[in-house]
Each structure stands twice: as C-alpha cells, then as structure tokens.
Amino acid sequence: MPRPSSLADRVFWPVVAGGAASLWFGPRALAVAGLVVVVLVLHRLGRGGRFRRRVRALARRHRETLALRRRQESYVDPYGNEILDGWLRERRYFAERTVAPRLEAEGYGDLIAARWDEILSIVEAASVSVAAPDEGAALPEDGLAYERYCAALLERAGWEARTTKAAGDQGADVVAERDGVRLVVQCKRYAKPVGNGAVQEVVAARSYWHADWAAVVSNAGFTPAARKLAAATDVLLLHHDALAELGGPSGGRGR
Asked: The Restriction endonuclease type IV Mrr domain covers which part of the protein (predicted)?
C-alpha cells in the first residue's frame, strides 16, 4: 500500500510551480500558488473532523444491530457487576471488520491506529443510543414466567406459540408454528452466558418435535463454545428482544 502523502508532500509542488511561474508572470502567479497552499493546508487540518464524522456515520448506520448485540453480549453477575467482556469483543470485531476497511478505502488508513480508541468510543456511543424494546418493563425473574414471556413475544411476531409442560418437553420450552414452519425454543433466564448444553438440548428437541427451526433464547448472551456448536448444528442463538420481529419463511432469519 502506498504511503499516504503528508502535508509537506502536497504543498511542495504548488510552491515550486508558483515560484517558477512568478519568473514569467510576476507576483500574481506567486499569489495564486499561495492561495492553493492555503486551501491545501485548511483541507488537511479539517481531515480529523471528517474522519470522526465518517466513523459516526458508519456506526449510526448499524446502531440498531449494535444496540441489540450489546444487550446480547452483556449481563449482570450475581454480585451486581455488569459483565461486558462479550460486548467488548463484539465492539472490536465491528470496528475491525466494518469500520476499518471503509476508512482504508476512503483514504483514512493512516489515522486508524492512532485513533483506535476514538473509533471504539464512537461505536460505544452508537450502541447505547437506542433504547431497549423492553426498557422500563420488568423482565420476569422466574424461569417459567420467562418462557411465557418469550412465547408472548413470538405471538407478537405472528407465530402460534405455546409453552410445553416441564415434564416430557424433551428440551423445548416453547413450540411455535407459522406458515407451516415449526420452531422449538429453549428459554434461559440466566445471570451468566448460556453454555453449549442448551444447544445440545434444543437440537434433540428439534428432532423430537419434528421442527424446522431450533433456537436458544436468553437475556445473558452465549459462551464461545455455545456459538461454535450452534453454528455447526444450525441453531439460532437469540436475545429475547429479537423474538418480536422473528419472521417466518418469508420474513427472514438471522443469528
């Protein structure tokens, strides 16, 4: 990759050309060269502001997804501490895979390393700029109540959803149907990320209930092992916020 030109590089040739032209055309040519140099300097000095505006624009474009991922990847532990480890990894991933390549392509590559903390700060601000759908509403503390809560969210999205009996559910807390598609869901109201045991259970439930889709829903995110297993077994890992907009075959799906 060629080295980005410095301010000295940019003004060198206008100064040289202006000096040479002044020998033939007099002070007017030198004045024009000086004006060009001033314009180049002002443009260069405003580059930092343009860089920040570009990062903000990229973060705002994805703020709904960033807000959801922040909720999915954060949780409060039994001691009342907010654990953000998963979200910090997700934030770095977004900055590296989405923001940095765009900045490189637009000629800001030389600023990325020096302003990395600023990029992360802007992404963080975008992630907290969107209110949670259930903000202000108390999330059910009881596991069975949380299952009913998830079923209600699916009903809102157009599914016919019902909770199963605790005995004999074979790993499915909620069974939902829409447009000929059957979905089985494990609902986990946890104070820590959900592990791969829940993924194994819902895979078994998908087979038992002859379902087309299987999902694990939680308020607290998922461990790396759970994510790896879910990707290998085609299981959706969702925050409960995503249920109210979970489409059927024509409505799309997402991880």
From this structure: 143-246
Question: What's the pTM?
Answer: 0.59
Class of residue 95 by CB neighbours under 10 A (exposed 0-12, middle 13-18, buried 19+): buried
User: 196: helix, coil or strand?
Assistant: helix
Q: Within 13 Å, how many C-alpha atoms sit on residue 218's CB side?
A: 25
Q: Both tokens of residue 78?
A: 């039994």
Domains of the chain: which residue ranges?
Answer: 9-127, 143-245
User: Across the chain, how many H-helices and E-strands are there?
Assistant: 11, 7
Distance CA 179, CA 196 (A): 29
Pairing mode of beta strands 213-218, 181-188: parallel
Q: Which residues pair with 189 in a beta bridge?
A: none
CA distance 255 to 246: 11
Q: Please write the tens of the pLDDT for every residue from 20-64.
A: 555 455 565 555 555 555 554 544 556 778 899 999 999 999 998
